[in-house]
Amino acid sequence: MTDPMILSGTANDIDSLRQKLIAGSQKVQQQIIPQLADLGNEGLEVLQEFLLKRRYTPATWIDGKTYQVVYNSDAPTAKEFLETYFPEGIVPLKSDCGISYNSLQQLLIHQEFQAADLLTIQKMCEVVGQQAVQRRWLYFTEVENFPTQDLQTINHLWVVHSEGKFGFSIQREIWLGLSKNWESLWPKIGWKDGNQWTRYPNEFTWDLSAPRGHLPLSNQLRGVRVMSSLLSHPAWS
After folding, report:
1. Is the pTM for the entire model greater than 0.90?
2. In angstroms, how far is the first alpha carbon of the chain from the final one?
3. Which residues touch 158 (CB under 8 Å, ≥6 apart)?
4. pLDDT, mean of residues 13-37
5. In the chain, what are the domains?
6. Which residue from 115, 135, 113, 117 is spatially nearest to 126, judged by alpha carbons?
7. Start and end of every GUN4 N-terminal ARM-like repeat domain (predicted)?
8. 36 to each of 28, 49, 121, 124, 191, how far by Cα in Å?
9. Pairing of strands 196-197, 192-193
């Protein structure tokens, strides 16, 4: 027979973690999520409850981290929960051009960042049109006129599924913090070391140990003009 004091202690622990997850800072929430994941079905229920309460507000990277734990769970209830409440993930896949971002979402959920980076530029070229698809990169004028909704969707997917480390908006935030100084930005995000540009693909870091803002690097090889158009886009205002 199980000691009721043990049950009570476990329930109190879970309730305490639940409160910290709901009311804590992002730093606290980041620590609480794996702790709940280690508590089996009871912890999983708290994480699912957390996602449900927040599903009508724009997803943050905390939601992304929570979603990933539930997504990776072996519990049959986890799959059923996600299929019922989040059949398309936690980021609305909006597009002004009818582009599907589901494949990009799947790569980012699985943290396959190198493949996601390649697919990001492919999707951006699809948005612009067949000529861009054939050349596999964008002119700065095409970036300037890029549909706001599509750019926000791509960016939101990157931010949410990278613990807030990656995304165009993150790169913009760092760039603005450096007074728009490009030569300061490149080493800060790991695209340059001294006078040497980081060589694609082997010298880039394709996981969360990378510097903040390291990815996506879809426009890294096309020069400052494209990057400037991207980070100055109306999508961020």
Report:
1. yes
2. 61
3. 108, 116, 120, 166, 167, 168, 170, 215, 216
4. 95
5. 4-85 (1.25.40.620), 102-236 (1.10.10.1770)
6. 135
7. 5-87
8. 12, 12, 36, 37, 36
9. antiparallel
